[in-house]
């Protein structure tokens, strides 16, 4: 019930063993009853829900709390937040697109203002190298 975006994604998750009840993985056709506790692994966290009531029809998002109780511990949500943050902070250099700052640094490096700092004159006639 609105744990996954579509039924096919939910079925795939069940087939891959990411949904369990009482510590046992379930099949897509597993019947659910009131009071069952369902654990759903959506890496990096595991959501835990208790079934409060059953319905035959698909429901709107506002009615979900009447049928499911979220028992997921706060530590799981903290883990999710840390994973989101660390994805940006721990990116190794050279992987993925450059950040905005890295792009600006590259543009500044390629800019002509840096090229003007160097003056090389290869045709200097004033040098006496003895090859004349």
Write the layout of secondary structure elements.
Elements lengths: L6 H9 L3 E3 L2 E2 L11 E6 L2 E7 L16 E3 L3 H16 L10 H11 L1 H4 L17
Antiparallel strand pairs: 1-2, 1-3, 3-4, 4-5
Structure, explained:
- The chain has a five-stranded antiparallel beta sheet with strand order 2-1-3-4-5.
- The chain has helices at residues 7-15, 74-89, 100-110, 112-115, and strands at residues 19-21, 24-25, 37-42, 45-51, 68-70.
- The mean pLDDT is 80.
- It folds into two domains: 1-72, RNA-binding S4 domain (Structural Genomics Hypothetical 15.5 Kd Protein In mrcA-pckA Intergenic Region, Chain A, Roll), CATH 3.10.290.10; 73-116, no CATH class.
- With 132 residues, it is of the alpha+beta class.
How many beta-strand elements? 5
CATH architecture type of the largest domain? Roll
Number of helical runs? Answer: 4
CATH classification class of the largest domain: Alpha Beta
- Gyration radius from CA atoms, angstroms: 30 Å
Strand order of the largest sheet: 2-1-3-4-5
List the main descriptive attributes of the protein structure presented here.
elongated; alpha+beta; 5 strands; five-stranded antiparallel sheet; about 130 residues
Characterize this entry briefly.
The protein has 132 residues and is of the alpha+beta class. The chain is 30% helix and 16% strand.
């Amino acid at each position: 019930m609105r744990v996954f975006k579509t039924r096919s994604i939910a079925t795939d998750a069940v087939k891959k063993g990411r949904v369990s009840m009482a510590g046992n993985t379930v099949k897509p056709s597993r019947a659910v009853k009131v009071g069952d506790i369902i654990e759903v692994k959506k890496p990096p966290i595991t959501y835990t829900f208790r079934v409060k009531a059953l319905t035959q029809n698909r429901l709107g998002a506002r009615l979900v709390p009447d049928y499911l109780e979220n028992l997921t511990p706060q530590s799981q949500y903290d883990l999710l937040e840390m994973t989101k943050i660390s994805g940006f902070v721990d990116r190794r250099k050279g992987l993925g697109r450059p950040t905005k700052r890295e792009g600006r640094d590259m543009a500044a490096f390629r800019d002509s203002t840096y090229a003007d700092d160097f003056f090389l004159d290869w045709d200097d006639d004033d040098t006496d190298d003895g090859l004349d």
